[in-house]
Amino acid sequence: MKKVIVVLTTKVATFNNYINGEWQESVSKKTFNSVNPANNEDIVGSFQASNKQDVQLAIESAQTAFPSWSQTAPSKRASILNQAASILEQNVQALAEELTREEGKHVDDAKNEVLRSAQTLRYYAVEGQSFTGETFPNDDSNMKVSTEREPLGVVSVITPWNFPLSIPARKIAPALITGNTVVFKPSSDTPLIALRLVEALDKAGIPKGVINFVTGKASDVGDLLVTHPSVRAVTFTGSTAAGEDIHKKAGFTTRTQMELGGKNPLIVMDDADLNLAATLVVNGGFSLTGQACTGTSRVIVLRDVKDEFVQKLVEKTSALKIGHGFEPGVKIGPLANEKQLKNVLKYVEYGKQDGATLEYGGDHLTSGEYQMGFYVKPAIFTNVNPNSRIAKEEIFGPVVAVIEVDTYEEAIAIANDVEYGLSASIVTNNLRIANQFTKDIQAGTVKVNRTTTGNLMNAPFGGLKKSSTSTFRESGRVGLEFFTQLKTVYMGY
Ligand code: NAD
What we know:
The protein folds into 2 domains: about 15-260 and about 470-490, Aldehyde Dehydrogenase, Chain A, domain 1 (3-Layer(aba) Sandwich), CATH 3.40.605; about 265-455, Aldehyde Dehydrogenase, Chain A, domain 2. Helices cover about 35% and strands about 20% of the residues. It has helices spanning about 50-70, 75-90, 90-105, 105-125, 165-175, 190-205, 220-225, 240-250, 275-285, 305-320, 340-355, 390, 410-415, 430-440; strands at about 15, 15-20, 20-25, 30-35, 45-50, 135, 145-150, 155-160, 180-185, 210-215, 230-235, 255-260, 265-270, 295-300, 355-360, 365, 375, 380, 400-405, 420, 425, 445-450, 465, 485-490. The chain has a 7-stranded mixed β-sheet with strand order 15-18-19-14-13-21-22, sandwiched between helices. The chain has a 5-stranded parallel β-sheet with strand order 10-9-8-11-12, with helices on both faces. Helix 4 (about 105-125) runs parallel beside helix 5. It binds nicotinamide-adenine-dinucleotide. The site of nicotinamide-adenine-dinucleotide has 28 residues, from helix 7 and helix 8.
């Protein structure tokens, strides 16, 4: 018998903004609900529907806190990050359950995300303390020439729902350790887990105004977060459309870092281990219900091995358990919201209309345990025309388009013929082809015999073309660069 998951919510809790060290209601006096995507009758919490006035207050508070925070000893800033990391670690189970309830991913994945977020805070606590300028040899023996790194000022952090804790952590930690102050606006689909990060920083003793938290609709709060003259930088992760909008609106003296959409290919060569290739596609395309920006959405396969590969892919996909993120063994949870569900179903229809063969899945699951959630069976299309919509546009759900080719050259041409360039992989044992692929492919993250998903916190992350602004990378040591400006000092004596 199926385990029934009952969430007992007698009263919906209301959560506030965090401005100038105080948890406070929006000036608007309005709220909105965050809903469990596995059970749309389960309200996770009620959050402030903020307006421009709230954002104004948050930015002013960050501006006021900046001089003191930028002068605070780096070791003190680091100890606050470490303390916040400990709070996340100590509460990992409870936080993971909240994350699952709010976003839908399996609780084991949610636990990993909580722990990775804590690790990210710790990583930047260390790395940020040794981030320095350089000295330059010069011909004047009575002069030292060096660069110094300074924080920028107020930074707006705008984030999506798919990694609602780890993406904010990888932006907020480098911003804070380098001495910036922050106004953070999370996705309205996942405000609770975002609030928990701010709460951890608050409990860790962060001075008032250094981090501010404002929830609400992009149409109410987005513009001011980007255009306010005190905002010196906007770090954003989300859709390419929103990223382009923000990038255009930001002022001349405001830096932008945009991590955007993808249409990530995985090429299966004719010498590939087809079991491995199918497993990589299942893990890269369907884990997190296909809602990873680096998720595999196109498989470009050499014609000779296509039938055997597709057979293995369908076999492995049909073994995936779909269900609530609290159930053991579940590999595919609900989509994160209704808009996502409609979008995925729309693209399944586009695939059929454009003549592709639906080999597996694509159904909206509506009965039994699935009836209250946004569930869809993962979809595999074959005979996909490389110019059709499912081959070109980001779907951001569990839909994989298999495209057949005759040669490596054809595979690369198709892989590169999209507007995105986030992540890409090839499955081959041929070292020459693998090496050539790293040069030919237009992607910021290039993998060989690995999933398109997954990136290290200590290595640079970002895309090419419309997947990122081609300015600053996130993650790793280079992730600190975005949050600092350089001064070159000529010191004569
Ligand atoms: P989204 O663009 O709808 O929203 C992201 C965030 O931006 C939310 O907080 C939203 O309220 C805010 N926002 C939206 N429009 C805005 C505007 N005009 N001005 C200011 N703020 C605005 O994206 P989403 O649906 O939350 O997330 C899914 C998208 O995120 C996918 O396209 C996915 O590829 C992308 N993503 C990219 C990465 C990456 O690192 N490249 C990682 C995760 C997700």
